[in-house]
Amino acid sequence: MDTAEIRRRFLAHFEAAGHAVVPSASLLADDPNLLFVPAGMVPFKPYFLGQETPPWPRATSIQKCVRTPDIEDVGKTTRHGTFFEMCGNFSFGDYFKEGAIELAWNLLTKPVADGGYGLDESRLYPSVLVGDDEAIGLWMKATGLPRERIVQLGPKENYWSMGVPGPGGPCSEILYDRGPEWGPDFDVATLGPDMPFELEDRLLEIWNLVFMQDELSAVRSKEDFDIAGPLPKKNIDTGMGLDRVALLLQGKQNMYEIDVVYPVIAKAEELTGKRYGADPADDVRFRVVADHVRSSMMLIGDGVTPGNDGRGYVLRRLLRRAVRSMRLLGCESRVLPELMPVSRDKMGETYDNLLSDWARISQVAYAEEDAFRKTLQAGTQIFDTAAGDVKEAGGSTLSADRAFALHDTFGFPIDLTLEMAAEQGLQVDEQGFRSLMAEQRERAKADARSKKGAHGDTGAYRGVLDEFGPTEWLAYETLETESR
Ligand code: ATP
Ligand code: MG
Ligand code: MG
Ligand code: MG
Questions:
Q1: Domain check: are 152 and 295 in the same one?
Q2: Which residue stretches, if any, does this entry annotate as coiled coil (predicted)?
Q3: Do 234 and 110 share a structural domain?
Q4: Which of 15, 40, 382, 389 is the most buried (most CB within 10 A)?
């Protein structure tokens, strides 16, 4: 089933059940705490928080999402994109647990001929928060599954909050067993409280149902919070990963191989002369290329331009990683003018601004590639000089100082330094380089603390700093919805 059809069926299913169909909001959240929209509920937040009255009691949407904290997983797991689409249904004080469970199960298991996704029931495992007997009972009633098929997971997986006092509630993640080639056998009774790492690609999480029912008075961590009492109005917020359901329904190994993403990999094969599937390290690069080309295009489409901080720096990092991955695959010519139109042709079927605004979008992307190519050129000369010096002195290791200078002054990623050194039969004092980086990071952190006094989930931006050198440090805070 192609992605367009999965999308259509989702909205039709919920529209038939009385939900207002709401178009995706921009990726740029209207929220000072968020760089980008990481989940479908974000545009509805004022309704959930009781700040505004919703115009309808129930709604459905397919929301564009970007999760920068997932960047390190891209291409390594089968299921994390920096860009993806989240299909959701929302109830504002209307139906609750039972309705949400029935609606989700029905769509997943209804035969394809009847408008559903036709997923094999024997592979589906609902999960609930440990001890949520109400949800267990409702799952058994809705599905006819025995209690032994319902997985109980701890609050890390199955309790949602925004990381601050306010609404919270238990979740039900719906998992799909992809079979023994994806991980070890498991016993439902002893799974949890945390999902074992080695099962995450086997028991693929496809949908999360959030039962917003509690008023939280304090949130100290994902597992440590105080419930003050019940919310006056109970809400439903769900998110189904479109790309993940597509990979299942299209019989693909991972989300980078689905119909709207894979053509970029195919184009990259053509440009590099390498085969996807021939080498595991190269395969990660192919997948990074496909993901990052798409996410950067979507971000530019919504108005982001490359820059040295905040949103602009995330975009810059995505574009540079795509270009660099292509170089590591052996293609040194300009790549974005070849790759991005392929992604546009696929995503443009849904987001027609990509077509109408293409002249601007492509110009922004291609100019950034050209600038990065200049950086690489300048750095390459410095690198060659450094490598020559080492050899002349009869050494075999490029010093940490030299690697750091390349990084710091020319924005030269360490991966590239390592790779180019290897080509010349040299090693790099990587350990030393890392400690210089750590020292610099400490300085940047101290600096940010003294500037802002803020804390937040800066992990993703620390990665940016690692790779591309210092930039103005912005300790953006992200909401817990990024990893609920
Ligand atoms: P995971 O545990 O696999 O990282 P999550 O628990 O962080 O997923 P949720 O926050 O519950 O994900 O988001 C709802 C749904 O959105 C998930 O069930 C999944 O189908 C989808 N999803 C989440 N993150 C991504 C991503 N990075 N790429 C693609 N789909 C995603
Ligand atoms: Mg999860
Ligand atoms: Mg989840
Ligand atoms: Mg996650």
A1: no
A2: none
A3: yes
A4: 40
> With a threshold of 0.90, does the pTM exceed it?
no
Examine the fold and report which residue of 197, 227, 249 is the final residue of a domain before the chain moves on: 249
Distances in Å between the alpha carbon of 252 and those of 247, 279, 298? Answer: 5, 18, 23
CATH at residue 142: 3.30.930.10
The Cα diameter of the chain in Å comes to: 76
Q: What is the pLDDT of residues 360-393, one digit of tens each?
A: 999 999 999 999 998 888 888 889 999 999 999 9
206 Cα: distance to centroid of ligand 2 (angstroms): 9
Q: Minimum-distance ligand to the CA of 39? A: 1
ipTM: 0.99
Helices (H), 126-241: 133-143, 155-158
User: Among the atoms of ligand 1, which is closest to the Cα of residue 238?
Assistant: 14
Distances in Å between the alpha carbon of 327 and those of 92, 323, 360, 361, 377?
49, 6, 25, 23, 13
Do 203 and 306 lie in a common domain?
no
What six digits make up the tokens of 93? 């004080």
Residues with CB under 6 A from ligand 1: 39, 67, 70, 79-81, 84, 86, 205-208, 239-241, 243-244, 255, 483-484
Tokens of 20: 């207002």
Q: Are residues 235 and 275 in the same domain?
A: no
Q: Smallest Cα–Cα separation from 361: which of 295, 302, 315, 289? A: 302
245 with 264, same domain: the answer is no
